[in-house]
Structure formats: C-alpha cells, structure tokens
UniProtKB/TrEMBL annotation:
The organism's place on the tree of life at top rank: Bacteria
Enzyme Commission code: 2.4.2.29
Record bears the keyword tRNA processing: yes
Gene Ontology terms: biological process: tRNA queuosine(34) biosynthetic process
Name of the protein: Queuine tRNA-ribosyltransferase
Extent of Polar residues compositional bias: 107-126
Catalyzed chemical reaction(s): 7-aminomethyl-7-carbaguanine + guanosine(34) in tRNA = 7-aminomethyl-7-carbaguanosine(34) in tRNA + guanine
Free-text remark on how the cofactor is bound: Binds 1 zinc ion per subunit.
Binding-site list for substrate: D94, S95, G96, G97, F98, D186, Q246, G273
Amino acid sequence: MSNPLFRSQLKSKKSRARLGEIHTSHGTIKTPAFVPVGTKGTIKTLLPSLIPEIGIQVAFVNTYHLVIHPGVDVISKSGGIHNFSQLNIPLMSDSGGFQVFSLAGKNKSQTQNPKSKTNSKSQNINKENDSRGANIRGEEQPLVVKISEDGVKFRSTYDGQLIEFTPKKSMEFQRKIGADLNMAFDECTYYPTTHEYAEKAMDRTHEWLKRCIEWRLANSDQRLETTNTNSQSQVASCQYLYGIIQGGTYEDLRKKSAEFVVSQDVDGVAIGGISVGETKKEMRDQIKWVADYLPKDKPVHLLGVGQIDDIVDLVKYRIDTFDCVEPTRLARMGTIYKIANIKFQMSNQFSKNKGDLSKRDNVDITRTEFKNNLEPVDIDCNCYVCTHFTKAYLHHLFKQREILGYNLATYHNLWVMERLMERIRDEIGNDNI
C-alpha cells in the first residue's frame, strides 16, 4: 500500500539521494528540503507574506515553547497554528523532548561518573552543548523537576508553572497545535554520554513511541476544536507521526534503534540526537550507520542539522528534510550567507578537504570595513535584499540595532538556503549527487 504522505519520484544512480514529495493538508513539499525553525509560531523577524517570495516550503514549530506561551488551547480555538500564525505552509512540530532533556543532560553528565578524570572536560563540553542546543531548538531551557519512565515534569521559564510532558501529553499538545508533521516524544541524550545511559534513553524512546502510536490510533477521529468561524484549518486537516531514531554515538544502538523505529506504524522517520556537540565526523558516522535501515517509502527527517556542507553530504544517505535555526540565528547576529558558497560546496562535494563553509566564508556585516561599502549585500545574489540595498545600509541598520536589519538578513539567508535546496534537487535529478 502506498504512503499517502510521501511519494519518491527519482533515485540517484550515484548514491541513496532521492527526489520526492511530501503531501500535507497545507501543501506539497518538494524534497530534499530545508526547514526553517519557527520555534514560537514565527520565523523570527519575517512577515508570513514573504514566505512564498523566498520559496520556503515548510517550517518547524516547537511544542514546548507553545505550551508555555500562549498555551495550546488558544491555538486550538483559533483553528490551529496555521490560522493562528498565518504560516500557510506545511508545518512540523517537535515533541518537546529536546528541551526537557537538554538541561537535565548537563546535570547528569556531571554526576554520572564523579571519579572520572575527564569530568572537568565533560563539563566544559556540556557548556558548549547547552549553547549549541539552544541554537537548534530555541533559547530558554526548562527547569526539569523530575524524569521518570512515564515522562518529565518541569517548571515553565515563563511563569513557573509545573508542566508535565508524557507521550500522551505530547501527542495531545501537538494535536491542539495542529502542525502537519508531528514528532514522537523521545529522549535526546546529552553528549558525551555512556553506552549504558544511551541504551536506557533509547529503550525509553522506543517505549514512548509505542505509546504515541497507541494514542494516535485511539484518537484518529479527533479534529481541532475551534471557535473561529473564519478558520479553514479544521477542514481536511491530517496529522502524520514521525518516530525518532536515537542511540547516541554508539553504532550498535543506532542500528538497533533504526531497525525498531522503521518497523513501527509511523508515517515518517526522524534521526535525533545528532549535532549536539559531537564532531562532524561523528555526526556523519551516525547517519552512515543507519542509512541501510532508512525506509524507501517514507520521508526521513534529520533533526537540528542545517549547515551547507552537512546538507550536501547527508542527502546522499536518503535524508529528505533538514531543520536548523542557524541561518536565521546567524542573520540576527549580522552574519550574511554568500550565495557563491553553494557553487563552491557543490563543486567540492567529494573533496577530502571540506571545511565548515557556512562559518568560513560568510560575511559579518557589522565589521567597520562595510561602513562605506556601497556594493550590493551579495553581488552574486538576485534576492530582494541584494537588488535593493548595499552593505553600507545593512551595516548601518545593525550598528543602530534597527529591526529592519534583522529582517533583511533573515530574508537573504533563507533565500540562499532555498537556492541551495533547488540546486541539490537539480543535481540529484542529473545523477551528480
């Protein structure tokens, strides 16, 4: 039986890369695709009306943040997150698992092996991980009160309210939010972690996936409750469930988790716990380990990965969608992507000397050298920003902390990401990837 969510259209002769389509109630996503993060129901600084102009196909919202504020009931009564936010494109929602475990991971890593000689080093790594994790999924870290086999209790960073996340609660929250593609509740392990704890977290993730599936089967006929008579979200709205592969940096656990998740009654598969502090080699290894297990008839999402070199490398392992906050986060810091990076990275995709291109060749528009530079923001780019404004103007906006500067930089960076994905789809179609 064919999957109503996903249709694979073409497989590369050179790798596992493929072209496909994800069909949702709010539109079709041509894959491979980049997924900008709209954590709190907004792609920060960007008007929803600009989304079609840039070519954004899909965005990611976060259950944890939306539960805290404004609360899922008001979103549900408005007709769901699409109507509430006017993000009229397919949306993914995180389960909340990443947030509720990211802070707890720091505490565990410091107490897990107090006699270890690498304890101080681990603490330093975890400080970096906390920052990187926040960049991937949002700013505020929860105040975890209790973690058990049933779920997690934590204090809201907004008003101190005690909130419980369980597989059932996560599914209920996501149903009320109304995103098209939902993630099963999982435990995202911290880095570095022991094999023992990674296995325990993986087993818990698997058990929670089964509970998420059970809840979905028991509530498959539910629809969004809405008091908004103008809402169209209640009509023909269908939500799909992704199971998440975990297992830390351990090959045996990653393969075991992949085999289990793919065997379950899920509509799509996500790979989690990647890019939480490990090296790029370790990250790529974790994808290679599970590549043979990834489904051919379901979409595959890679959570929290979105640098240009990573995307170009990892589409070769049957990854269909990538989410990451980095393009928008860096934009608000004044970091401007160069569209020439796409051509460079594509031409060097098989080079053994790959670097972190997204950080190496970007432009820091806040530098004094751009104060009087009247060249386009990116001379090689034909987006609205680059055909209307100069480096000097954008430099001026950032130095004066004008909100328009953040908007223009975000627009440009996401434009570059969309052109990257278009180029990747073309290269797959030509069997070059």
